[in-house]
Amino acid sequence: MNNELSNLIHQARSGDIRAASRLMSRMVDEPQRLVELFSETDDCPQPRLVLGITGAPGSGKSTLTDRIAGEYRNRYPDRKLGIIAVDPSSPFTGGAVLGDRVRMMRHSTDPMIFIRSLASRGHLGGLALGARAVVHVMGLIGCEVILVETVGVGQSEVEVASRCDLTLVVLAPGQGDSIQMLKAGLMEAGNLFVINKADRDGADQLYQSLVSVLQLKPKNEIRSAGYCTDVVPELENVFLVSAFEGRNIDRLVDAIELYTHQHHEQWKAHRQRQVQEEVREALLEEVRRRVLKVMGVNGRSEARIDRILRGETGVAELASELMKEAAGMTEKGDL
Amino acid sequence: MDRNDKRIRILIGKPGLDGHDRGAKYVAQILRDAGFEVIYTGIRRTPEQIVEAAIQEDVSAIGLSLLSGAHKFLFKRVIDLLKEKGASDIQVFGGGTIPPDDIPMLKQMGVCAVFTPGTPGRVIVQTLKEHLQVPA
Amino acid sequence: MSEISECIARIESQKRDWEDRTVSRTILRFPEQRKEFVTGSGKPVERLYTPDASVLADYESKLGFPGCYPFTRGVQPTMYRGRFWTMRQYAGFATAEESNRRYKYLLSQGTTGLSVAFDLPTQIGYDSDDPMSLGEVGKVGVAIDSLADMETLFEGIPLDQVSTSMTINSTAAILLAMYIAVAEKQGVAPEKLNGTIQNDILKEYIARGTYRFPPKPSLRLISDIFAYCTKHVPNWNTISISGYHIREAGSTAAQEIGFTLADAICYIETALKAGLKIDDFGPRLAFFFAAHSDLFEEVAKFRAARRLYARIMKQRFGASDKSAMLRFHTQTGGVTLTAQQPENNIVRVTIQALAAVLGGTQSLHTNSKDEALALPTEESVTVALRTQQIIAYESGVTSTIDPLAGSFYVERLTDELESEAEALIRKIDDIGGMVAAIEQGFVQKQIEESAYRFGQTIESGDRVIVGVNKFQSSEQTRMQLFEVPEVSQQRQIEKVRQIRRNRDRTRVETALEEVRQAARGTENLMPPILNAVKAYATLGEISQTLVSVFGEYNETGH
Questions:
Q1: Where would I find the beta strands (DSSP E) of chain A?
Q2: Residue A99 near chain C (CB below 8 Å)
Q3: CB-based contact C483:C373 (threshold 8 Å)
Q4: Do C16 and C138 belong together in one domain?
Q5: CATH code that applies to domain A44-265
Q6: Which domain CATH number covers C378?
Q7: What are B40-88's pLDDT values in tens digits?
Q8: Whether residue C50 sits in one domain with residue C82
Q9: Would you state the CATH architecture of domain B9-129?
Q10: Neighbours of A180 (CB within 10 A)
Q11: From edge to edge, which strands make up the β-sheet containing B91-96?
């Protein structure tokens, strides 16, 4: 166990906000160390609810997240809340502009809300690789509800469902691809469906098509999707709201709370599976890093690849070679 | 790109009441192009909101853009708040409509760099990399 | 008709010959300076333009005559032969006393209209002693907290003899009410008042940022002002729909007119829904554009804007010719000023002002050379004003109307900009109107992308800015800059506190309660606001009362 990590964990647990935010950075930079975080904090309280919020770009996710946060703070003034907002990294430079906070700034000075923006860093699936660790650290500092807003770039965002207790899918009229996205997997990922911007033309129409799509889906198919969708989407799972005007947010939060109450027990098993899944990913991440390391930088990897291209070796042979080399590598990356 | 590089994070914000965000947004974009992760907080923020956000986001630096002439007061407030919160290691830089005569005073206050209109993007990036000790 | 097309065909074939023989030979020996030539907004520019049949064939519908539909060539029949544009310099700083002195100076120097700059707290609806105002009081304009400040601001300036333009948006109703109240105290009836309030909230959400209330109640305030002024202040320009700030934020010329006219459509539709008649308020709608340095593109932009607006008014809203006239104020481009070698800015401003005049502007503000660094000094404001006077009296460009009409290049640019802008308006219609487009961040994103592209062309050296990325000089020009006196802020805070102590408390409370009731209902908000202003309720108190009913707007992000 690395001492520095251990210190950060200790300080974060004692309520040091800077330590907590540094710990988050550390876990995002080195997600393979999630296991260390888990093992050192298994006695810590964990959040009551981790709520995923996903949907098409322009559906108003950030504004909705902001409103849900506001509603929770009104209802439970003495309880902490965390928000994680993920934005895409540039595939060219690795940099990112994380702008979700703009809509949430009014919570910025609320000592009971901790907001963290994450860049996807090339990770597909709508989250960032370290997102789960950030959830965990938010748990350490006492956040009891955590809202996780996904990138919102398209159809591959179902990952959020496997990382959260409960997933909200946000749609809005005028977003032509909403229903397409649903058909491409978001429907299975969602527990509750929100039609935002309900004051706009086309909201009713969207509601109708959403309901018909949800009803068309056979029950067993949804079950077999492997996520936590153990309830068939029904009309009660669809909400018309206006995040911009703050309308119907209270009803939505009522539903979230009811759902949480009903499924609380089932989530325990789900969370156990999540932990296993995350450790598996951390393990793969460590292997990936080691293999990348032995593959070499600055021309070394190109040289190896050229050998394949010249027919001197095959992909399978080279892979075995790399794994052998990686096996001889210590934790620090020395050969 | 390697998705697990350590990335330097920088917050870009506009304290005070002026809404001209072209410069702030442009700097956010060139910093993104230079590989930084930029947390953009938008216009009309109080120094308190900016400092709190900077701490939660674990940034290495805060960039403040101001065109209203309120820079003396607002830069100082941000720097004072960082001190109060034990976060003086977070660097502060700035830009906007800032008379050259005010720059020495801002630097003395603890502002690490001031970029006036027309500063080329690569100069901004290079200056920040030096201050934040990012390997080239 | 066929004669014309034969003519055109002949010229086109000759042009091809010229390209193939003469030009290509020359290029082999002397390559052109760049592969692609573009306008200031990045539109491709051809080597040579030749006559276009439509300028003659469709002359009446595309160009027409000055003062006649579609107003491409100008809104008045005689333009500057009758009278010059209004030379209006935007000014205001610190306290009302100090601004009042600057206005009197400007009037003595030949300015023909006042243009009031308010500080940011006034523009957003905070009193000077509000914690949100810290550091901002009196900085970018004058601080107005109550009617008392407004009385001082116009002390000794007879309001029936000047036209006053006020850059005020979310709190426009309150400041207009104060202006009406000051006039009343001077013995000037509202129907005698001339001037403009900017009152364009949509571009605040898009580009300028001094919003306070959400779009819906803000639009209601605007149509309340339309209705009130139609009845009581008939010569007042109730709105100045502004592309200026959209352009400053980084848009292209086409986006500037496209988004501005889309804003106009939204205001008109709101007013029509509120039961107003198009020709009652249509003639009072005014516009405000930027003038940048690409002379021809800017001239074409103004002409395209006039033609497109006229068509929209007529075809979409069935307006009369009088309502279909696009009258506009112009300001030279603030973002084009450089902090480096500031004297060069005088030359930039001259070209831009010329573009505005050749484009047929109704009034003009020329920027001062030092504005990239601070508020302007009196001396630099004077040079800026003299620039306009030289164009008016010495350059000769004012002697004939629309002198660039018929330029093959300018007519083509006019057509292209018009159709680009029209396409943007259609796009916004498809999204569901301007409010929806703003909420989705569509407009902001378009502008942001243009600004980024523009910046990148400077970074790469593709676009030259003299003194910035080429012809730099290491010499530092020392300039005397203007600085707002620090003591003003404290004085202003004391003043508003004193006002609050000395007024009739019950009267203020009753008046504010009336504003609140009106805000909850649907009656026109202007009368109760005017009443509150007269009771010396402060700007901050009235704004807060409105916030208690309307709520506040938050930035939507990307």
A1: 49-55, 80-87, 96-98, 113-119, 143-149, 166-171, 192-195, 238-240
A2: yes
A3: no
A4: no
A5: 3.40.50.300
A6: 3.20.20.240
A7: 999 999 999 999 999 999 999 999 999 888 899 999 999 999 999 999 9
A8: no
A9: 3-Layer(aba) Sandwich (3.40)
A10: 13
A11: A96-98, B37-40, B9-13, B61-66, B91-96, B111-115
Residue where a domain terminates, one of C59, C87, C104:
C59
Residue C13 lies in a domain: yes
Residue A312 DSSP one-character state: S
DSSP class per residue in B51-84: HHHHHHTT-SEEEEEE-SS-HHHHHHHHHHHHHH
C39 and C88 part of one domain = no
Binary contact (A108, B32; C-beta < 8 A): no
Q: Between A and B, how many residue pairs show a Cβ–Cβ distance under 8 A? A: 111
CB contact under 8 A, B4 and A285: yes
Tokens of C429: 């219609």
- Residue B47: helix, strand or coil by DSSP? helix
Cα separation, C299 vs C286, whole angstroms: 18
- Please compute the mean of the pLDDT values over residues C2-12 and round it to a whole number: 89
Contact call for C135 and B25, based on CB within 8 A: no
CA neighbours within 13 Å on the CB side: how many for C401?
19
Residue A217 confidence class, pLDDT cut points 50, 70, 90: low
Whether the per-residue pLDDT at A166 is higher than 60: the answer is yes
Same domain, C360 and C403: yes
Question: Rounded to 5 degrees, what angle do the CA atoms A23, A29, A35 make?
Answer: 65
CA-atom Rg of chain C in angstroms: 24
Which of A102, A105, A175 would you mutate first to test chain C, the one with the most C CBs within 10 A?
A: A102
Residues C52 and C163 in one domain: no
Domain residue limits, chain B: 9-129
Q: Do the bridges between strand A80-87 and strand C328-332 make them parallel or antiparallel, or are there none, so unpaired?
A: unpaired
Rounded Cα distance, C243 and A78, in Å = 47
Measure in Å the smallest separation between the Cα of A119 and chain B Cα atoms. Answer: 7
Hey, what are A77's tokens? 């003034």
Say if CB C370 and CB C378 are below 8 A apart: no
Instruction: Supply the range of the domain harboring residue C24.
Output: 2-59
Give C417→chain A minimum CA distance, Å: 28
Q: Report residue A219's pLDDT band, with 50, 70 and 90 as the boundaries.
A: very low
Paired with A97 in beta bridges are: B38
Domain assignment present for C483: no
Answer yes or no: do B53 and A108 touch at CB < 8 A.
yes
Q: Which residue has the tokens 């554009």?
A: C289
Contacts of C437 in chain A (CB under 8 A): none
CB proximity under 8 Å: B 26-55 to A: 28-29, 31-42, 45-46, 48-50, 52-53, 55
Q: Per the domain annotation, does C348 fall within a domain?
A: yes
Interchain CB contact of A165 with C (< 8 Å): no
* Number of domains into which chain C is organized: 3
pLDDT of residue A233: 44
Is C131 at the interface with chain A, CB within 8 A?
A: no
Domain boundary among C418, C441, C459: C459
Asked if C451 and C544 sit in the same domain, the reply is no
Note whether residue C202 is domain-resident: yes
Q: CA quadruple A244, A248, A252, A253: dihedral positive or negative? A: positive
DSSP 8-state symbol, A48: S
Cβ atoms of C351 and C364 closer than 8 Å:
no
Q: Given an 8 Å threshold on Cβ–Cβ distance, is B40 in contact with C558? A: yes
C43 and C145 belong to one structural domain: no
pLDDT digits (tens, 9 = 90+) for A241-270: 988 888 899 999 999 999 999 998 888 888
Q: Same domain for C247 and C306? A: yes
User: By CB neighbour count within 10 A (0-12 exposed, 13-18 middle, 19+ buried), where does A327 fall?
Assistant: exposed
Pairing assessment for the beta strands B91-96 and B111-115 based on DSSP bridges: parallel
Interface partners of C (3+ CB pairs, < 8 Å)?
A: A, B
